[in-house]
Amino acid sequence: MSAPSPRIAVYSGTFDPLTLGHEDVVRRAAGLFDEVIVAVAAAHHKRTLFTLAERLDMVSEAAQRMPGRVRALRFDGLIMDFCREQGAQAVVRGIRNITDFDYEAQMAAMNRKLHPGVETVFLLPQAELQCISSTLVREIAKLGGDVSAMVSPAVAARLNPPPLQA
């Protein structure tokens, strides 16, 4: 009898920047699957604050603190094609509220049409993290606000670098 195939899940996004809510979803997924691939989107359609390389670095740094096997990979194109290439059985999506659920349910239905063998798993971050979004974190940081309760210390340092010394 052969060993069962590893259960692989993909969690995709731009992660611009990676928040504690994202990290919570990855940690929860790592408890459910043998491997979680955090697929960092090239995001040609968006103007990101951080480059793809910087976003991959942030996710890779966080992955080192995660239980289980978590790794970051770049992706471009359809997530179902990426899942097929990686041998993934599931897509993990974090949902914070009913608006997220409505959008993600539509995406899950479309993804099922594209690749019926991949399930979508919805995970809710901890209640105190549900109000966090990358968009709000970027805006707060841009205006000089404290984002230390929303992102890891490494990400906070990237958002608010220390002033240059003369």
Mean pLDDT across every amino acid position: 93
Residue stretches low in confidence (pLDDT < 50, at least 5 long) are none
Radius of gyration equals 16 Å
By DSSP (H or I, 4+ residues per run), the number of helices equals 6
Helix content: 25-40%
Distance between the termini: 67 Å
Strand order within the widest sheet?
3-2-1-4-5
Shape: globular
Query: Could you give the order of the helices and strands?
Result: EHEHEHEHEHH
What can you tell me about this protein's structure?
With 166 residues, this protein is an alpha/beta fold. It has 6 helices and 5 strands; from the N terminus they run βαβαβαβαβαα. The protein has helices at 20-30, 52-63, 79-86, 98-114, 134-142, 153-159; strands at 8-13, 35-41, 69-75, 90-94, 119-123. A 5-stranded parallel β-sheet has the order 3-2-1-4-5, sandwiched between helices. Helix 2 (52-63) links the parallel strand 2 and strand 3. The protein is globular, with a radius of gyration of 16 Å. The mean pLDDT is 93.
Short account of what is shown:
This protein is of the alpha/beta class. Helices cover 39% and strands 18% of the residues. It is built from six helices and five strands, in the order βαβαβαβαβαα.
What key phrases describe this protein's structure?
globular, 39% helix, alpha/beta, single chain, 5-stranded parallel β-sheet
Which helices and strands appear, and what pairs or packs with what?
Blueprint: E1 8-13, H1 20-30, E2 35-41, H2 52-63, E3 69-75, H3 79-86, E4 90-94, H4 98-114, E5 119-123, H5 134-142, H6 153-159
Parallel strand pairs: 1-2, 1-4, 2-3, 4-5
